[in-house]
Amino acid sequence: MIPVIFVRYAPGSCGTFLLTLLQTSSKVACWNPELEKLKGTTEFAEKFLIWFKIKFVSDLDNHIKHEPHHPYQLDFFSAKYPRGNNVTESGLLKLITERKDQLFLDNIDQNKYTALRLNKTSVPKFGYGNKIINIIADNKSRRWLHRTRWIKLFGWEDGKWISKENHPEFLKAKFKNIQFNNQYHFDCTWKEFARNFIINEPVMQLFRDRESLLIDPSNNYCDQYFINLSTILNPEQGIIEVQKLFDLLALGTADIDLIRQCYDHYCATNLIPMKKFIPK
After folding, report:
1. Could you give the C-alpha distances from 67 to 8, 52, 62, 86, 117, in angstroms and in order?
2. Is 186 domain-assigned?
3. Whole-structure pTM value
């Protein structure tokens, strides 16, 4: 089995934040290759925190341009769309070898988890047998999530609403090449846009409870773990849950001091700005 650890979440619900915290583990490869080389040294915590602060900024309108993204050559797989669902373990190995994806290959050779996003209910075949951490957009977190999605993922340009996830300006900041040309301008009223893309967007509905999220049969082949978004939004509870995940997933000893410092920064830049929407 190729070791992969997925965090599955609705876009905007702290998934990349949780993925990044998991990368402090000695058993999960860091998306920053230079930091990965420093694991086990006295420099790692300090350097990781510097990188974390660069990636999670207070400029939430441009969050997508700054947030960390994996460095792997996975053009054949989509975290959101069906593309790549039928890629098997042997198929994955063949594809990343053809692409000379040495970082992913090194993770396999060193038996380290490769951390990946999932924003859909299905699991690719190459992930069978692995672990999935699911973030549930529970009722308590709903107002915060709606507000966050609006600020981070959408906007207004030239008299039309835009999806930053598909907008070339935002994609170029994250990817070297834009391979797909999805619609990113929408000409409709504010109420229509909010209802269709922020509140009732079909993918969002799937993350409201466990049953909906696990509806696809492919989930039967993976170990499933769950955490409520409202828990992540509470720093004290969130840190406790992250430590539990380290124990449940056998990720080694969690560096709680480093995780707390990351949490403090994330709270100041991404949570406090929308404090009135955070559940008490």
Report:
1. 17, 9, 9, 28, 13
2. no
3. 0.91
